[in-house]
Amino acid sequence: MSPATPRTRRRGLPATPVRSARRLGEVRRAQLITTYGVGAMIAVENESFLVRGIDSWDISEAPLVLEPRLARKLGVRGFRLPPAPDPDKATDGVRAVRFPVMYSCPECRLLQPFRRFNSPAGKAECSTCQESLVPSRFVMACTHGHLEDFPFWKWVHRGTQRAEAGGCGGELSFHADGSTASLRAVRISCSCGAEEVSMEGSFRRQALKELGIRCSGRRPWLRDAPAENCEEPPRTLQRGSSSVWFPVMHSALSIPPWSEGIDKITARVYDKLKDEDAAFVRRYVQVENVLKHHPQYTPDELVACIARWRAQETALPDETTTGEKAGGSDEDARAELYRGEYDSLCKSHPERADAGEQDFVCEAPEASIEPLRESLGLEQVMLLKRLREVRALQSFRRVEEPSPADPRERRAPISLAKTAWLPAFEVSGEGVFLRLDNDRLRNWEEQAGPLARGRRIRGNHERLLRERNASSDKPVPESRATPRFVLLHTLAHILINEWSLDGGYPAAALRERLYAEGDMAGLLIYTATSDSAGSLGGIVAQGDPVRLDATLHSALHRARWCSNDPLCMESEASGADGLNLAACHACVLLPETSCENNNILLDRAALIGTPDLSVPGFFSG
């Protein structure tokens, strides 16, 4: 693959303002969605920066990414890859701003804003000691996404009349002798003679609130953004902690008809032709030879397809700020997207010569799955020899992980100005889709044992959803923690672990997609990555019925015992917020990139039952 393709190209992060911008470094396009997105901090050598909002990006080098189903559900016109300008010519691209502002010198121990060190241009260096500066390890954030420097001055001068920055005329010093890993070894002092204090206790939930420190409502990743009135108590966080930035992402598989044929051709020209009349479209098709490599289609078919897309687009709101669709919730949008995918996955869609670079090829295996149906209750196995997924960044959260119950104000925007697009990237891969026998599944999930364990997880999940929704007037979303969902989720996890051992894939290169709402009873395990563990046929080979039978039995046998048993199996609640039962890192938990539910709502007993046989597992027989 050429280094210039969107999958592998990197982009620089110039600091602001543009006229004095310097190239800071490079990150992958996908990382600007998943790891270093808008509002996230990125370390560059001995400096730290905050990625700016998408309304500051230069999108002249940002190709369109089209996925009509996902765009409609998120209320935007389309998506764009993060810009990737030529490194030798670029003067702009994705912008960043210095954050945190507070730096310290390891030699003179001075702790002050970066600009006061008078560093040489393009360097972070103490002008007195010629030592490389160190950005502050501590920042302050709230659950509404606001972010600012840790208030060192107030922390040192607590309880005095000089608690305002510079009130005593002294200078702060930072001491970290490294004698212990404890925060007690990190000490802050002031030359005014105030008593030296350590950072111990600064991470307590109410530590800053008790000192009268309030959230200022700052959003430094958005240029010229006014401070918001915020009553949320601020929290101390480590600069490199994962709690500083949680992306709120949405994804969709490209399914027919949008993934092939005339619809796929339309996607490439729709942005240019959507507002033009039929005569202009026909002329454009002829002048630009749009159908040169697709003689099976006519200009009239393209005109009709554009008209159909335009009609579907009229349902969108005229203006958006964060990409959230007017009315409806994220869960509603997700359910609609997944229903369409499930229906497509259940149907055979073989490769066709006239399909025009199909993004979705789904076929049943050649061998019979009857043994799997009789012994394991599998109703259907489908091999996805080709799939495309689009992942878009909608917003982000701080301090706490995103939840379906989050009110809108707890999700920080990625732009201040109104935009009709969101940053996204596309990946290709392959996968295996499994569907369970609905009758057998219904008989199992209506038994007392599975219902009781499901209610235990569901109760804890509903409590968490109520807590997250306490400040909103919207109804609390319904928990997905049904026996069916827990079963399919845990089955996906043990299969990913097994295929990672049997097929040679790293577990982090495999992903799950669960279809458990209503009468859906399926799961998709697939590769969709931008690295070498992509679509080489290894996962499709795992879907061969003979091989699948062996790996399923092996995975279920492995799930019967955990090195943490009996504690793991007998646990009344485990994992974050007690949202798992028999599930731990020694048995079914996966890397975060593989699980679409943050490793919650899992229970091995749903698969193999409990040792005392009081709760039957779906595969107990």
* C-alpha termini separation: 48 Å
What's the overall geometry? Answer: globular
SS-based class? alpha+beta
Main beta sheet strand tally, sense and closure = 8 strands, mixed
Rg, Cα atoms, Å: 27 Å
Mean pLDDT: 85
Helix tally equals 16
Our estimate of the beta-strand percent is 15-25%
As a percent range, the share of helical residues equals 25-40%
What ranges have pLDDT less than 50 throughout 5 or more consecutive residues? 1-11, 316-327
* Strand segment tally: 22
What can be said about this structure in brief?
The protein is an alpha+beta fold and 621 residues long. The protein has helices at residues 31-34, 68-74, 152-156, 207-210, 261-273, 278-288, 299-313, 330-345, 370-376, 438-445, 448-468, 483-502, 538-542, 545-559, 567-570, 605-608; strands at residues 10-14, 23-28, 41-44, 47-51, 64-65, 78-80, 96-98, 102-104, 110-113, 134-135, 138-141, 147-149, 172-176, 186-190, 197-198, 235-238, 246-253, 361-363, 378-397, 421-436, 510-515, 522-528. The chain is built from 16 helices and 22 strands.
